[in-house]
From TrEMBL:
The keyword Hydrolase applies. Keywords: Carbohydrate metabolism, Glycosidase, Hydrolase, Polysaccharide degradation, Signal, Xylan degradation. Residues 33-365 form the GH10 domain. It is an enzyme of class 3 (hydrolase). It comes from Aureimonas ureilytica. It catalyses: Endohydrolysis of (1->4)-beta-D-xylosidic linkages in xylans. This is Beta-xylanase. Its EC number is 3.2.1.8. GO terms for molecular function: endo-1,4-beta-xylanase activity.
């Protein structure tokens, strides 16, 4: 997934919106779910904090919306505000005004921050592109990470230190994406970034975050293989990586590669990493028009995915990429809008803040893992 944050066979098990035996009937109606404890409460009891994404840039104008949100979660991803381009628009200019205000509000609500994301190829500051000297480039990276992580030490529960650095189309043997960081510093820039983040906040969870490895597609298989190569390299380098973020942008009409995903998750855990579900949603662009049927199928798809992953590991956190359907990043792009013009429904809450079947799936998964 490359632009959402700019808005802010042969023994292989395959499963799409339905299987030969029919989908797991996970979906429970919103009305039936309304009396259940919040995911905030359920997550706290299970030891899996639940979080939502809502841009800090909308605060305080959206305070009423935020007040609703924080009844349901104990973590918040503040949209784009931690990106290097946002935090340091000039070589000697730092701007965390929006984040500072937002962080104070979250502290009042006893909600932790998710630091998303420090190093991402999509948010390189313009001024950094002219820094050609490797030593100067590394110093700039260290300064930004130290400034940002230190400033919010004790408030950020999980830092997505490195984001989306594997590319299934990469010609490199290691599968790394050709980024400015790679060009200036070589592949070990990631180890250095994690070390700097650990020094700045020894207690926060440090995460490598990635997308696009859930399905029965050649590019997903290549992504899994390349990501495992990277994770082995980071382990061998003794990099300060605590967990791997499974972004979990699901496609409700896709075919999940359950065997491949299970084996991948087991290997991640065997390498000594925890996992986090970091950006969960279910794209319903090509799903049926009927909303009740669409919600059920999306919930069934998410249940199959979560059951598969969480059979191998208990996530340290679960976060969804948005709160209510009408604020989803998918609505802003032609490729993800529905051709029938109907509103998208990819999240756990509808536009009226009502819990949907996907909410029930997340609740059940958290309870089972606790």
């Amino acid at each position: 997934m490359l632009d959402r944050r700019q808005f802010i066979g042969g023994g292989v098990a395959l499963l799409g919106a339905a299987t030969a035996g029919g989908p797991a009937r996970a979906a429970e109606s919103g009305a039936a779910l309304s009396s259940h404890p919040s995911l905030r409460e359920t997550g706290q009891k299970a030891g899996i904090p639940f979080g939502l994404c809502e841009p800090a840039s909308r605060f305080p104008a959206n305070r009423a919306y935020m007040d609703q949100l924080f009844a349901e979660c104990s973590l918040c991803v503040p949209g784009n505000e931690f990106h290097w381009r946002a935090v340091q628009p000039g070589p000697k200019v730092f701007n965390t005004t929006k984040l500072d205000l937002f962080a104070r509000y979250l502290a009042e609500k006893k909600v932790g921050l998710v630091g998303h994301t420090l190093i991402w190829f999509q948010t390189v500051p313009d001024w950094l592109k002219s820094v050609n000297d490797p030593a100067a480039f590394e110093q700039a990276m260290a300064t930004y990470i130290d400034h940002t992580v230190s400033r919010f030490r004790g408030q950020v529960v999980r830092w997505d230190v490195i984001n989306e650095q594997v590319d299934p189309k990469s010609p490199r043997e290691d599968g790394l994406r050709d980024t400015l960081y790679l060009q200036r510093l070589g592949p070990d820039y990631m180890t250095r970034a994690f070390a700097q983040a650990r020094q700045a906040d020894p207690k926060a969870l440090l995460c490598y975050n990635e997308y696009g490895f859930e399905y029965a597609k050649a590019e997903d298989r290549r992504k899994r293989d390349s990501l495992l190569k990277l994770l082995r390299h980071l382990r061998d380098q003794k990099a300060e990586v605590d967990c791997v973020g499974f972004q979990s942008h699901l496609d409700g009409t896709g075919r999940l590669d359950l065997d491949g995903l299970s084996a991948f998750t087991r290997e991640v855990v065997s390498l000594g990493y925890k996992i986090a579900i970091t950006e969960l949603d279910v794209k319903d662009t090509a799903m049926p028009a009927d909303e009740a049927e669409r919600d059920r199928l999306a919930a069934d798809h998410a249940k199959t995915y979560l059951d598969c992953v969480m059979a191998e590991a208990k996530p340290v956190t679960i976060t969804t990429w948005g709160y209510t359907d009408d604020k989803s990043w998918y609505q802003y792009y032609d490729w993800s809008r529905r051709r029938d013009g109907r509103p998208l429904r990819p999240l756990a809450f509808d536009a009226q803040f009502q819990r949907k079947p996907l909410w029930g799936v997340i609740e059940t998964a958290i309870r089972a893992a606790g």
